[in-house]
Amino acid sequence: MDLVNIAHDLTGLTVPVLALFAFTLPLLAKLFGEKRFPAIYALIAMIFAAISSTIIFIGSRINDNPIFYKFGGWPPPLGIVYEVDGFNATLALFTAWIMLLISIYSIWYGRHLDEPEWYYILLIGLNAGMLGCLYTGDVFNLFVMLEVLGISAYALVAYHKNKHEALEASMKYAIIGATATTIYFIGLVVIYSVYGSLNMADLAVKNYYLYQAQRSGVTLFSQMITAIGASSLLAISLALWVFTYKSALFPNHFWLPDAHPEAPTPVSAALSGLVVNIGVYATVRFLYTIFGPLSPLELYYREIVLIVILILGFLGGLVGALLMIAQKDIKRLLAYSTVSHIGLIYMAASIGFVTNKPEAVILGLTAMIYHIINHGLGKALLFMASGVFIDAAGTRNMDEMRGVGRLYPITSLAFIIGFLSMMGLIPFAGFFSKLLMYQAFIEAGLLLPALAIIVISAISVLGYAKAMYAIVFSSMNKKYEKIPLKGINYMLLLMAIALIALGVLYPFIKDTLYGIVLQYLTPNRIMYYRFLMR
Amino acid sequence: MISLSTYLLTIIVTSMIMNLALALYGIFFKPHLTKKIIALTILGDTANTFAIIVGYRRWISPHSPSRPPVLVDYANINQEDLVNFVNTAVDPLPQALVLTAIVIGLAVTLFLVFLALQIYRLYGTLDVREIKRLRG
User: Fold this and answer.
1) Strands, E, within A75-157: which ranges?
2) Which of A154, A275, A389, B130 has its CA 20 to 30 A from that of A349?
3) ipTM of this model?
4) Which residues of A are less than 8 Å from B118 in CB distance?
């Protein structure tokens, strides 16, 4: 019981404390004057976030109800609440721990960072933004947190501010990102003018009542509910742009292959492994919790929205896998791999239009969460490992990096395991999440998407094999610099072992995630909210 | 015969939609980065105006929302006053949202302006047709 209380308090504290950490950093760095101070300070902040998200996760698992933290004590529909259920607690747990690993890696990477205090402010800001996006229970607060996340990410991409390409990539990312977020704000205004509320749980309950009214044939409201369905379609379509933009779903993926190679390597790992998940999370929140199967949107348009996402996910998966083959730049190859995997994740997330088979929907969402975790961990590992090879070879071009992996056996081992998991080989995590997606589509009776997953995986093998062959297996054709690793290779090996563990513990993880989806992403969760809104 | 208020409302809504379209056109098709940033601020301002108008709930008249949402004399208030207050007070929440959105917009604009300045220092131009070192 005590832990539940601590988890409740930490839900409100985590994001503001991280912001405090970020903004006190430059002052303290000036006072201490120590070169390594910002890195250690950021490490403390990340450790705090990781521990706090773990406690919140355990707290949300002990208690059956979601954790509600009311800022300023305002009751739910009026004030901002942070609402943590099993779904976002899992993603936040994952995000905070990967950010901790990235922060440790940044210390090793430190010699490339000439002004570490600014880098670490932005990194902590990125963490605060992501955790804020995940924990918040208010659609307007989501907008604010998306901007916090966005500005940190844009600035981190442009961190090497004397590199031409970095600035260009950042500008490309930032200007469309800011536009998309503003469009989301217009969507929010539409939601507010229709529902008179911005609280996610309150919106879900209102949608539920409207749906019930329509179903029970109260003809008085029938036209009004049609209008509400149409306006929520408008709001959803305005909102989905920023979500798909942040998660680089085709055709909004154009910024990602430019931004990732130009950003510092730890930032590439964070953007590719974690930031893209935020968009998926927000999409699922909107289409399964707020405008879920029991809402006026369902009566008219929800199916269309989900089918569009399915098609875009398929196209993204295909385009990413095909373009990956043509790449010479290792980081750009990994970026296209992210586009491909995000496509797969969106395909799994779109399964909600199969309403007559609830089992398939639950399986699909389980596969989605599982794949988010596998892909995020694997991609962070791959970017960090490729950072080591890039440093050793002094270039990102794979043709000039032949055999560089032979100098670093442990890093290479982790690198290969990461690739094998991305491909979806049997004992590794990636296989099981793809299998689960396949099962979900078969269960739903959709053969084509199920086949599409196999086809996309098969095409992407070519790209992965090329990278593995070039970096590890081919013979060295020039002398490479031997750079000190300072134990960072053991951290990478640990992540690789975690990938194997995620695969080997498949039955246990699947059951846990299945339970979470069953409890929080199916229509029966509306009951919790009706209870809470009273 | 349409009434004056409907006419005015139509003008406002049409001009907002035009503004939106022009801002999006500017962001996507203008080659100059400064113009893109200006178009972005226009988009933000249009969104803010839209939020403020939603806060008024109905077209302004003596019997519809146009008063600040402040109860001055709440010590001896009766039911009629309260009903009157609810009918005439402007919804304050969109204004709070707009305040937040303006601050965020300031931060984003400042960041973009600094980015554009740095781009100008390196490339010597702000024309996106000449800022093309990336392949994809």
Assistant:
1) 81-84
2) A154
3) 0.92
4) 158, 161, 167
